[in-house]
Amino acid sequence: MTSSHPRATGGSSSPPPETLEGEIIRVTFYNPQTGHTIAAVQVKGHPAPITVLGKLPDVQPGEGVRLEGTWTVHPVYGRQFAASRCATGRPGTAEAMRRYLGSGMVPGLGLVLAERLVNHFGASVLDVLDHEPGRVAEVPGIGAKRTAWLREAWAEHRALRDIIQFLSEHGIGAATRLHAGVEAALLRATADGHTYLPHGLLVEEAQQVLSLDARDTIEAAVQQLLIAGRMLAPQASPAAVRAAPVAVPPATAATPRSGRAVRVFAAAPPALALDQTSPLYLPAYWRTEVSLAARLRAVAARTLSVDRERVRAWLARWCAREGLALAAEQEQAVLQGVTCGLLVLTGGPGSGKTTTLRALVGVLRATRRSVRLAAPTGKAAKRMAEVIGLEAQTLHRLLGAQPGNRFAHDETNPLPADVLVVDEASMLDLFLADATLRALGPQTQLILVGDGDQLPSVGPGQVLRDMLASGQIPTVQLTHIFRQAQESSIIQNAAHIRSGEPPILVPPSPRGSVPGDCVFVPARGANAVEVVARWVVDELPQRLRLDPCTDIQVLAPLTRSVAALNERLQARLNPRRPSVPERPHGALALRVGDRVIQTANEYRLQVFNGETGQVVSIDAGGGITVDYGDRRVAYGAGDLYHLDHAYALTVHRAQGSEWPAVVVVLTQADAPLLSRPLLYTALTRAKRCAVLVGEPQAYARAAAEAESTARYTGLVELLTAGESGEAHGR
Fold it and tell me: How many CB atoms lie within 10 A of CB 274?
């Protein structure tokens, strides 16, 4: 998920961030109101502890940390590490476990009790406390009453830690558990694609996050966050000023045992009038949505003067040279594309988007306009370059992505191009779309190409869908399916799915023959993994002469299903052998020859979310080299956190890519995520053959479900109403 967090604009001369891993030795200072921390950390490779300062998530001695930041020099205290991000991990040694548990983070759990717990349970003590707290009674001298107390105290500590850690990873500090819970609920909603939540739903989500029934207390926290400007309510108006302040229940009601929380506020100043549907935003999401809407309207308002007859004459010559005839809607798209400041070209498979785009780019270049091509993923950019015959880049590379979600190209340094063409526009999330618009020059045209029926972006927003729904953006939708495409079962089934009908499930032909371009193989439960492995390793390579390591991709909705498939496919395609280097990597070792995917932007290495490659070497220190096709990237041992196996991918991760053959797995166990866009996106990743594995009921359910979860976004309203972007809040 492109990073779904706010980006700073403009270039910077500050040094690039470093990543350090180590163990908290002591916490010298901690301000619970701001999260500001000064700590001594023993870092790998450093002979003595270093001083770290920054907003850290209430870290404790003994805790493992992964820090991102820069070195600074204090005139009195010398060299220090200023951390901008901190991810915590479990203590790595028995001594670290003792320091961690006995640090006072859980009132009543001191060094003596920590020593007894660690001596009895050893390295598994945290697993016992997390998952089997009743086993604490096994420790000599700890009775049932003390066991029950420790179970409850640890559960409360763990809930608070999870919330604050989640916020810290997204750059948000939290003063109290209530603030943390409300902000975490809203931030988690953005991770699910929303740009805001309605007031009533946010309160309900915060109640679940905090395990708290006191709705009034949470609503009080919402009001204070609005007053403090940490959330925004764009449609709210100030409530009538009360004659006297109104007492608010204290936040300590949420944490009666630990006493960690403080009062939200003792008395409420005049609040904002909210109803259950009032949109509530984190500030950066509202401001970016307003910015994107304003920029889209401005670019859409641009027009260019061209000689339409000359364009038609050029098109006629191009069609004759290519041996093609454009449909009327394709010709309309080309004519609009050379006259509009902004054009959305949309349509399903077989509708001629690629041919139309080739013709449009040809016309633009014939009129001496410089054209730049880009797509959200490397595979989509590579395919775009192949079909159009010009260089194409990922958007991140074209815009000059930098650490801190900044880009080299923005309003002050626009792209040197007359026209920017972006393919797979359904993958644009709120922040990447805004960055793209910011990088346009005052006369640059923007052409967005995509399929609005595909899944929306992994990150927040559904930019392409909202643009289409607003009716405010010039759009050409290609609907004519060409005769050669009509013969494809993949395209026929895609049309069925778009209409809400299940795909036609045809069994494969007998073994040894070509299977048909879209076939169904029934499977249930654990058997589905074996069926998939057989088709990837044996059936498709034999029938279609495909390379199972490069030409076939397995897709499933759920991460846990993908993990099981990756484990089995690695065992079949790249098993452990004495001659093949490997290194530990979570639950599944990384091995030379493995298919891998980068799952987050790594600006220092210039490798971005969604890029896939193959491991080509592993060094003695645990570092690896990955071949991404156009370049090789060397990862240090500490750079592998966002690298996963890619024999199987979630459907979301497959957006923007195509393979000769795709094996899709849907079962009833996937029910919560089954939807029409998910099935449509999965099927249309296949160029030559799609094998649908699973249960017929799951495919029918997916086709019938318009959306698994609707997204709350404000872009349609902003595009339609031309909002100024002012929001209430202080």
Answer: 24
The Cα–Cα gap between 151 and 136 comes to 8
Report how far residue 400's alpha carbon sits from residue 9's, in angstroms, rounded to the nearest whole number: 11
pLDDT tens, residue by residue, 504-559: 999 988 876 667 789 999 999 889 999 999 999 999 999 999 999 999 999 999 98
CA distance 328 to 478: 10
Judge whether residue 9 has pLDDT over 80.
Answer: no
* Cα angle 106-112-116, degrees, rounded to a multiple of 5: 100
In order, the DSSP letters of 281-333 are B-HHHHHHHHHHHHHHHHHHT-B----HHHHHHHHHHHHHHHT----HHHHHH
Average pLDDT over residues 334-348: 93
What are the counts of helices (DSSP H) followed by strands (DSSP E) for the chain?
23, 31
pLDDT score for 615:
97
Helix (H) or strand (E) holding 165: helix 144-169
Rounded Cα–Cα distance for residues 565 and 569 (Å): 6
pLDDT tens for 149-198 read 888 778 767 766 666 556 555 555 544 667 878 888 898 899 899 999 99
pLDDT bracket for residue 601 (50, 70, 90): confident
pLDDT of 134 higher than 60:
yes
- DSSP at 19: E
pLDDT surpassing 70 at residue 246 = no
H helices of 439-506, where? 463-470, 483-486, 489-498
What length does the chain have?
A: 730
Q: Helix 527-534 to helix 559-573 angle, to the nearest 10 degrees?
A: 50
> Tokens standing for 161?
């830690």
Confidence bin at 233 (pLDDT 50/70/90): very high
Pick the more confident residue, 115 or 76.
115
Q: Residue 71 — φ and ψ, nearest 5°?
A: -80, 140
Cα(first)–Cα(last) distance of the chain, in Å?
31
Contact criterion met (CB below 8 Å) for 315 and 334: yes
Q: How far apart (Å, rounded) are the C-alpha atoms in residues 14 and 533? A: 49
Structure tokens at 543: 């029938």
| CA torsion angle 181 186 188 190 (round to 10) | -170
Query: SS3 string of 238-287?
Result: ECCCCCCCEECCCHHHHCCCCCCCCCCCCEECCCEECCCCCEEECHHHHH
Phi, psi dihedral angles at 246 (to 5 degrees): -105, 130
